[in-house]
Design a protein that fits this description.
The protein is mostly helical. Helices cover 77% and strands 0% of the residues. It has helices at residues 4-39, 55-64, 71-85, 99-134, 139-153, 156-168, 182-212, 215-222, 227-239, 241-256, 259-264, 270-280, 283-311, 313-318.
Length: 319
């Protein structure tokens, strides 16, 4: 029979998961509702082109996709098709292709890019933040904060061409466009990783400084613990909590929100669909992408909450 503390901890975790799922479901419903009506307020329609269509052809196209009905009827049909049939609808621009197929084809590419970018962010940002905290107000800390601030201020669409010119055109094996060879993957992943590593470095430094000033750290040092043991054994778990909170939404944003980087390096991921769907007024594709992005954000936040509860036992008690 499990101890009472473990049973209470398991109940708290279950209750927290159910609460987050309920909150996430409400957020997704509001997000899809707002998106549905806002995109229909945009000027124009999905069937605009260089050549204006005759009125009767335009009416036939709208009727075939149900766009000739009122917004409320379209809204009800959209939710019914999605919940009852799992159908996100067809693309209004690319004939014969469903939104689910387009997301399914591009998501593995964005996932691959996002995972590599996150690995680079963690490998660069967290060690840099730890060094900055350990050598506070010394030259290492100054350089870490200077580079981090530059990384935060310089947007990805500036970093991408700089890496393309500085590395892609001079290092053999690297490519500045496409997704066919391993050399095509490094530069976009490096762009994503370095931009997010700047945020991670500052968050890690702040969290570590707060923990390193605690009494139990001074006690550990007084007992003769070396710097490595103090960081690894005592300070790291609490000091990484701010960085862990950032990782979940950042990872979801890397996967689906990296359209700037994907556009700069011509990566066939989900980012291109975000841009093209908005330009082409592809209603169903926009709605599907926003829903998919929202699900990733909710899942990432839930994963972060679970990791934080595992790292910090006090959160389980507060739950």
């Amino acid at each position: 029979m499990r101890p009472a503390g473990q049973r209470k901890g398991g109940t708290a975790v279950t209750r927290m998961i159910l609460k987050r799922i309920a909150q996430g479901t409400l957020v997704l419903f509001v997000l899809e509702t707002v998106t549905f009506f806002l995109i229909r307020l945009l000027p124009g329609h999905p069937f605009m082109g260089e050549k204006k269509l005759p009125e009767h052809v335009l009416h036939q196209l709208q009727a075939s996709y149900g766009l000739d009905q009122s917004a409320l009827v379209q809204y009800g049909r959209y939710w019914w098709n999605m919940l009852a049939n799992g159908d996100l609808g067809p693309s209004l621009v690319k004939e014969g292709i469903s939104v689910a197929d387009m997301i399914g084809q591009s998501f593995p590419v964005s996932l691959h890019l996002g995972v590599l970018g996150m690995v680079i962010s963690i490998m660069v940002g967290i060690p840099a933040g730890i060094l900055g905290a350990l050598y506070k107000n010394r030259w290492i800390d100054w350089w870490v904060m200077l580079v981090s601030m530059a990384g935060i201020c310089v947007p990805a669409f500036v970093v991408a061409p700089l890496l393309g010119v500085g590395l892609g055109m001079h290092v053999p094996g690297l490519s500045v466009a496409g997704w066919d060879t391993p050399g095509c993957v490094l530069l976009p992943a490096l762009t994503l990783g370095l931009v997010n590593a700047a945020y991670l470095a500052r968050l890690t430094r702040g969290g570590m400084l707060e923990v390193l000033s605690q009494d139990f750290i001074r006690t550990a040092r007084a007992k003769g613990a070396g710097p490595f043991r103090v960081v690894w054994k005592h300070a790291l778990r609490g000091g990484l909590i701010p960085a862990i909170s950032y990782l979940g939404p950042a990872f979801a944003a890397m996967i689906t929100g990296s359209f700037v980087v994907e556009t700069c390096f011509q990566v066939p991921g989900m980012g291109q669909h975000f841009v093209n769907a908005t330009t082409d007024r592809d209603y169903f594709l926009i709605q599907g992408l926003v829903l998919f992005y929202g699900i990733l954000i909710v899942a990432a936040n839930l994963a972060v909450d679970l990791v934080q509860m595992a790292v910090n036992p006090r959160l389980r008690v507060e739950s």
